[in-house]
Amino acid sequence: MAEQPELTVQGWGPPGTRVAHVAEGGTLELTADKSLAKALPKAARKHLARELGWTPRHTPPVPVEQIELAPSRLPVPVRAELVTLLGLDNVRDDRESRLRRTGGKSYLDLVRRRSGDASDAPDAVLTPADTAETAALLQLCSRHGVVVVPFGGGTSVVGGLSGTDVDDRPVVVVDLSRMSGLVAVDVPSSLVTVGPGMRGPALEDALAEHDLTLGHVPQSWEFATLGGYAATRSAGQASTGVGRFDDLVASLTLATPSGVLEVGSPPASAAGPDLLGLALGSEGTLGVITELTVRVRPRPRVEEHEGWSFRSWAAGLAALQRLARHDLLPDVVRLSDPDETRANLLLSGGAGARALRGALRSRGHGGGCLLVVGWQGLPTLVRARQRAATSLLREDGGKRAGSRVGEAWVRHRFEGPYLRDRLLDHGLLVETLETAATWSALPTVYDAARRALREALAGPGKQPLVMTHLSHGYATGASLYLTVLADRDDELPLQQWLGAKRAATDALLAAGGTLTHHHAVGADHRPWLDREVGPLGVDVLRAVKASLDPEGICNPGVLLPS
So where does FAD get bound (predicted)? Predict the structure, then answer.
């Protein structure tokens, strides 16, 4: 069993950290390197200071020992019943257990935690062993009016773990770490059954013994769990080829206060509406996912990644849209706009960065866009797909920047959250938002969201940096992922971002974008849900919740508008 690192209020651990097998199974927040010089090259620091109007300053988080934590409000008789059901070791209300499961990893979560605000800490942490115990604790909590929030890896970036309740009832977290095993492997059917608390690295290790892979690799892969993937309809970095996680789920078990719901019948069924779709993306509002059967595939014999450059964002978009129309999109597709391409060059080093810089300059694309593409599978199929895509990319003005660029992206693709933690230590606002749109609407959505963010965060001598990339391509469109850096308002940091987020969301919805593509709704997006699904759609979801969770104890405060 791994030694537990020091608990801090940082958001992510150092690069390369693996926390799949820790003592309590909770997300561990490791101390980040506070040296800005080590986090950012000198050229990047100068560029950000000049472009943002940012004055680097030391803004460390409040030490953990100084965080005030209110006493647990879980009634003693209810706690006793839970202990009888789950066992003494699986009902915890000590300080560390509660703090480790407070909130997620959004900018708002981290700012609150860094300031010492743990007002959203749960009153207790429960660790059931199986579906039966989970269903029983949900029924118990429903009887006693105790709110239940499922907890996997704690990586929500949209306030999905808030547990906010208008009646201010006690809140317990259901930690899924005891349900984290590989339950069954059906190689002929390409199906595996797993517990919801299993993390991506652990699953891939287990599948490797059968020469299989799931292939779902989001940026939170090191920490997030399969139950969380399902509850949020996650998308991975290779989802253009593999599919989103909701495409990979064949069936699941959902424990609810009203009973246990088993949905999904692989390989396919026409027996009425697909109830599996109600559980996927439900974000803990209907119950707790306790088991999943997912589609897997043979491990790829070859994986190849490479970089391309385009003279402009519009040229890159046109090339990818053409690939999509001919069903030639690679498994990994990531087109960075000029701002993100320039930032990648400034923030990174090594052979990959040198190769990209040389490729852009030699091809006259110094102010252009970087495209990273990747293929996975059998060598003959990969080569055939690669040749066909390469031909079209070149016809549309793309210039190949080489495999070193693609390999550098693979090596560094999980480092963004770690860098964010270091930048927060030095006075920056760092946050992301994402959407999706049809190919015809993408340019308008891109312009509208960027303009709204810039206007909302600009001030005297201040201008935010808004970096965008396209990923997760489809025949009909693609997603846009925006990363925002700005000089932080140290007096009103929450209000600063909330205003920008509101402006950007209004703008991208008006331009034809979706409310979210893969981060889910959580607390942050729920005021706009009726604009995405319509008032009647919200009523349908409320009716389902009333049937499965009549007392409203399952993760209130997320998904459904108040």
Answer: 150-156, 283-289
